Amino acid sequence: MDFNGLSIDQAPPISAPVRFFVTAPIFGIIAGIFLLFSDSATLMSRYSIDAIVITHLITIGLFGFIMLGALTQMLPVLASANVPKIKRVALFSYLALFFGLLSMAAGLELSNSVLLWSASALLGAGFLVLIVSMLYALKGVKHFTASIKGMFTSLIFAFMIVLMGIYLLYGYAEDDVTQLHYIVANIHSVWAVFGFAGILIIGVAFQVLPMFYVAPRFKQFCKKRVVILISIGLFIWMLLSIYAEQYALYAKLWITTFFWAFATTVWIKFNKRKRPISDLTVWYWRSASIFLTLGSFLWIYDEFFKHEYIVMVGILIGGGFILSIMLGMLYKIVPFLVWFHLNALGYMTIPTINEMIDKRFARAQFILFIVALIGFVFSFYLPQILTPSALFFTVSMILLEYNMLGAVRIYRRTKKTKPDFDMSAFSTN
Amino acid sequence: MTLSNIKEYLTNDHRRCDDVFAQMEEKAHNSLSDAKELTQEFIADMERHFQREERIVFPEFEAKTGMVNGPTEMMRQEHAQMRNLMQQFLEAIENDDKDKFFGLSETLMILLQQHNMKEEQMLYTIVQQHLSAEAGHIVEKMNSLIVE
Predict the structure, then answer these.
(1) Is residue A32 located within the same domain as residue A114?
(2) B-chain residue closest to A347, CA distance
(3) What is the pLDDT of residue A421?
(4) A429: buried, middle or exposed (CB in 10 Å: 19+, 13-18, 0-12)?
């Protein structure tokens, strides 16, 4: 009999997810600094070295770290799936990804093949060890809900994009950038955005929106079919973009239809939610729906303009949709983990999760982030606003880090000062 | 309720508590003192649900499987954490402290939902498998439970 999901020592230690969460904003800050010193003409080409470095500081450093941290925490709760030796696996992946990403950024900027080879080994190992362990843990789950199917599918896409990423890094390390390189790069980016991040967010939303906001449930059709329909769309799109590019638009239409529908559904579900609260995470979900809608339309529109707008699509969907949801989630999950672990240790007089992060700083962080995103979009037309936008973005990431560390500080301080040690709540009732 | 499936019965119970919780927050949003009655109703509903598990389902399950310090014990501990939080709801109402009230309700909400996920995803499924023969009887007992 497998009771692992419910035994206390199987819940991952707080350090496993939180280490990822407090490191993510640091990569955001580094990305912001890179943006400050870049010029908009270079960034408008998606294959310029600066664009690739900044993109990956954000996609691996911010999204990747937050998603992996969240998965180590959510798999046992949402799926009763326990990653074997989670403590060691999470620490190994964390270190490998951390140094791998730094080597990648430095290797690309300096065109240093030793750094690029080590980046490829470290990032490959860091991602694959954690992804394969999670897939292995999920394989044993007997009761496959729609959310678990979403997570599983998204991890399969993650596995493939990592393999593609290793190949792409090899291209730079050996200075062997062929036509195939660009085809793979295109698939790598689209699958990462829609297959890994997009499907993961949709899968988690099935469970999270009805539960945490007491919003109406998703229709059976959504829960049963959407993930598979998007996956088929992504696969067909890949084949078309390799063999018959002129028809790739149809697959794109197919994929965006579902994402646009998802964006609209999220908006409607928030309107119909029973809980009256309207906190920062609700704002983040709302802004994510708007940016996803705009990004999906622009992705189609871009097809008719020789991909001139592809970087703007990336900002809208990557920054506006994926990052908004990630950041919104951080504001809930980090204070909750601090509260939960302290409370389980017996500390009763601790702040509630709303009191751990100063609301004013959280709001300021949100506003700066949104202003920066809008600025990035318009810097396409007005290059001079790139620098102020980059500054806003950097400050918003510094504030994010400050806000997260605030919650972590409460954890450390409480454990150190032991304000009370009241076990009465655990006495038999 | 005429359900004879423990998993469905307890899962429906969760959703009913969620609805009362949302109503309580809605009321509290306008005025804390007006929300007192709904808060008491919510706490009573939660207590009934906890006792259905702690006094009926968990002991039956433990007796059948011999798993005494396993998942049911973990669930009892989380019930204790929730009881402790809910006590503070009424204090916040007495002090007319809205920030405290919503801080507590948000904390409870997340604690409660991750707890529900573990139960619905895992524990109830196993419980139903092991107690399917006596499920009708157990549901009847849960229906007629008098809260202590």
Answers:
(1) yes
(2) B81
(3) 56
(4) middle
Q: Does the distance separating the beta carbons of B23 and A354 come in below 8 Å? A: no
Which pLDDT score, from 0 to 100, does residue A5 have? 42
Same domain for A251 and A131: no
Which domains are delineated in chain B? 6-142 (1.20.120)
Verify that A20 and A138 share a domain, yes or no. Answer: yes
pLDDT along chain A (429 residues), means of 10: 43 89 97 92 85 96 94 82 86 97 97 96 97 92 86 96 96 91 95 96 92 89 93 97 92 96 95 87 95 96 86 94 94 92 85 91 96 94 93 98 96 84 48
Q: Are residues A165 and A71 in the same domain?
A: no
Provide, rounded to the nearest whole percent, the portion of chain B with pLDDT above 70. Answer: 98
Are B111 and A275 inside 8 Å of each other by CB? no
A150 and A139 belong to one structural domain: no
Same domain? A127 vs A35: yes
Whole-number pLDDT of residue A45: 82
Task: Spell out which residues of chain A touch residue B26, defining contact as CB-CB under 8 Å.
Answer: 274-276
Are the C-beta atoms of residues A31 and A57 closer than 8 Å to each other?
Answer: yes
User: Which residue range forms the structural domain that includes residue A263?
Assistant: 144-276
**Taking the CA atoms of chain A, what radius of gyration do you get in angstroms?**
21
User: Which residue, of A225, A259, A276, is where some domain finishes?
Assistant: A276
Q: Are residues A123 and A185 in the same domain?
A: no
Neighbours of B144 (CB within 10 A): 7
pTM (two decimals): 0.90
Tally of structural domains, chain A: 2
Which of B117, B120, B124, B129 should one mutate to test binding to chain A, selecting the residue with the greatest count of A CBs within 10 A? B117
Q: Is the ipTM of this complex over 0.90?
A: no
Predicted pLDDT of residue A214: 86
Amino acid (one-letter) located at A268: I
Q: What does the alpha-carbon distance between residue A164 and residue A168 come to, in Å, rounded to a whole number?
A: 6
Q: Report DSSP state, residue A215.
A: P
Same domain, A120 and A190: no
Q: How far apart are CA A54 and CA A394, in angstroms?
A: 13
